[in-house]
Write a structure and sequence with these properties.
Oligomer: single chain
Number of helices: 9
Largest sheet: 9 strands, mixed
Radius of gyration: 24 Å
Shape: globular
Strand content: 15-25%
CATH topology of the largest domain: Rossmann fold
CATH class of the largest domain: Alpha Beta
Number of strands: 15
Strand order of the largest sheet: 5-4-6-7-3-8-9-10-11
Distance between the termini: 82 Å
Helix content: 25-40%
């Protein structure tokens, strides 16, 4: 029976038309790691064997989980899920090396989570999504799939198999609204990612990894949707001892450290430090004239002079790192400048000591 109180159900159209006047600019950050990884979307990180793609990606993922700038590039912090479909056994030593070299002994909990299991992403992505939801208790900002080959049941060269893989990876992106990085190998000639081009055609960013003649790791931004291309990130591996095995033999692993890379296409921007960072560099050089020999520590290079961060900060204030007389403005200017210098590998800091890297 009809009444005046019948509930009217309004069904929203699946395809909604948005008028031009309602198209407003979004000020939300579009990046996870500025200039390297978009905040949402698929990023392909590819390179030949032994180019240490996984070491480099682990280092970036840790910076995201910690909220640290990466080589002077801003980062959106959040939980990270790293799916190690191959080489998972080495991650414990890798994590210990990072912990020993880069973290304070009393560091807070880090939202980095490893999935150490083989998987067929096409068939298993639903179960992976459910596991992340149940165990993480929050949406990740980054999911790493390392590598494509070890998580694809079909053929990389088959258009249907690769399309299904991309669809599964995209489902993770849509479910969590996150960045998904696919670590992949190169083709026989080493000039492009291996397999069908539907992978690269679906990517929002593409990063190429290679080793130079000195063994340095060079990561080039080959393609970036709505972003600059051609930037090169230079790194090297440092071998450190992380423990001893049952026979008393040393266990070693590596951490990633910054090195100077070849100039990018934007040479002026790559070569020139921001003005405040230049001021901070000069201030540190001046403060180090009264510096002391570094205390014994595996975190500080042998033979360098160090100065307290407080002394460096005061010298930067005297040099005019901020045009404002407001102490908070000066403090923020110094913090931004020092973080930039640390990120690009020009300055090192440990236990309240600073030095020229």
């Amino acid at each position: 029976m009809n009444t005046a109180f019948e509930k009217v159900v309004v069904i929203e159209p699946r395809f909604k038309l948005t008028p031009f006047c309602e198209l407003k600019l979004s000020t939300e950050c579009a990046y996870l790691v500025k200039g390297l990884i978009p905040r949402t979307g698929l990023t392909v990180l590819w390179g030949p064997p032994k180019s240490v793609k996984s070491f480099w990606m682990f280092d970036v993922a840790m910076h995201v989980a910690l909220g640290w700038e990466y080589r002077g590039r801003r980062v959106q912090q959040g939980p990270v899920v790293y799916c190690a479909f191959e080489g998972a056994d080495g991650f414990k030593a890798r994590a210990e090396a990072f912990r020993l070299r880069k973290l304070a002994e009393d560091h807070a909990a880090i939202e980095f989570h490893l999935v150490a299991a083989r998987a067929n992403l096409v068939a298993d992505h639903g179960e992976l999504e459910a596991a992340i939801r149940a165990q993480l208790g929050a949406k990740p900002v980054l999911v790493v799939l390392d590598t494509l080959n070890r998580s694809l049941a079909g053929s990389e060269s088959d258009d249907k198999d690769m399309a299904a893989y991309v669809k599964a990876a995209d489902a993770l992106r849509e479910t969590f609204g996150c960045a998904v990085v696919i670590v992949h190998h190169c083709g026989i000639d080493g000039t492009r990612p291996r397999g069908h081009s539907s992978l690269t055609g679906s990517a929002d960013a593409q990063l190429a990894v290679k080793r130079d003649s000195a063994g340095n790791i060079l990561v080039t931004v080959e393609w970036m949707k709505d972003g600059a291309e051609g930037d090169v990130i230079g790194s090297r591996l440092e071998v450190i001892e992380v423990g001893a095995d049952a026979d008393g033999e040393p266990i070693t692993s590596c951490v990633v450290a910054a090195v100077e890379a070849p100039p990018s296409r934007d040479r002026a921007r790559a070569a020139r430090l921001p003005k405040a960072a230049q001021t901070a560099m000069r201030a540190l050089s001046e403060a180090l004239e009264e510096g002391i020999a570094a205390p014994s520590s595996r975190k500080i290079p042998n033979g360098v002079k160090v100065v307290s961060v407080a002394a460096w900060r005061e010298q930067a204030y005297r040099r005019g790192i901020s045009t404002s007389d407001d102490l908070d403005s000066k403090r923020k200017a110094f913090q931004r400048a020092s973080e930039h210098l640390i990120g690009v590998g020009r300055v090192g800091i440990w236990d309240n000591f600073a030095w020229l890297a």
